[in-house]
């Protein structure tokens, strides 16, 4: 039972269904068709053309195995993570710069207040008193 479950994976069941559908479709199309490519034209039964296209598709699938796509996905994930880290670092730097600018503005405002207080107190002592 366990062997049957491991043999009938989702991927294999889908592949089997597709093969059956293609076979039924091909068997219902026996008429000859003319296929043209550049300067050549060939007349052959449609069933041969359908099965040849299926074989080409299987070959292309075999050449570009899933592992190749997995490798591509891993590379893209790594690049995306690096870009995300760069953006997060830049955002953190921007926040730090903004906080520093706000702190500098507060210090400047406080300095103006102190200067005004000092100038205001000095003006009051220098003014003659009215008697």
Can you lay out the helices and strands and say which pair or pack?
Blueprint: H1 2-7, H2 10-27, E1 32-37, E2 40-45, H3 46-63, H4 66-126
Helix pairs in contact: 2-3
How would you characterize this protein structure?
The chain is mainly α and 131 residues long. Strands 1-2 form a two-stranded antiparallel ribbon. The chain has helices at 2-7, 10-27, 46-63, 66-126; strands at 32-37, 40-45. α2 packs antiparallel against α3 (46-63). It starts with a helix and ends in a 5-residue tail after the last helix. 0% of the residues are buried.
Major sheet: 2 strands, antiparallel
Instruction: State the end-to-end distance.
Output: 115 Å
* Rg for CA atoms: 40 Å
What's the count of strands? 2
User: Uncertain regions: pLDDT < 50 for 5+ in a row?
Assistant: none
Identify the quaternary structure here.
single chain
Number of helical runs? 4
List the helices and strands in order: HHEEHH
Structural class: mainly alpha
Overall average pLDDT: 82
- Strand fraction equals 5-15%
Concise summary:
Helix content is 79%, strand content 9%.
For the structure shown, list the relevant keywords.
131 residues, two-stranded antiparallel ribbon, mainly alpha
């Amino acid at each position: 039972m366990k062997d049957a479950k491991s043999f009938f994976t989702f991927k294999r069941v889908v592949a089997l269904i597709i093969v059956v559908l293609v076979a039924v479709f091909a068997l219902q199309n026996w008429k000859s068709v003319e296929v043209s490519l550049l300067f050549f034209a060939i007349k052959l039964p449609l069933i041969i053309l359908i099965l040849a296209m299926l074989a080409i598709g299987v070959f292309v699938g075999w050449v570009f195995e899933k592992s190749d796509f997995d490798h591509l996905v891993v590379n893209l994930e790594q690049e995306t993570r690096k870009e995300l880290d760069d953006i997060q670092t830049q955002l953190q730097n921007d926040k730090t710069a903004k906080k520093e600018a706000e702190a500098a503005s507060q210090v400047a405002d406080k300095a103006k207040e102190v200067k005004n207080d000092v100038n205001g107190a000095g003006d009051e002592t220098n003014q003659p008193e009215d008697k």
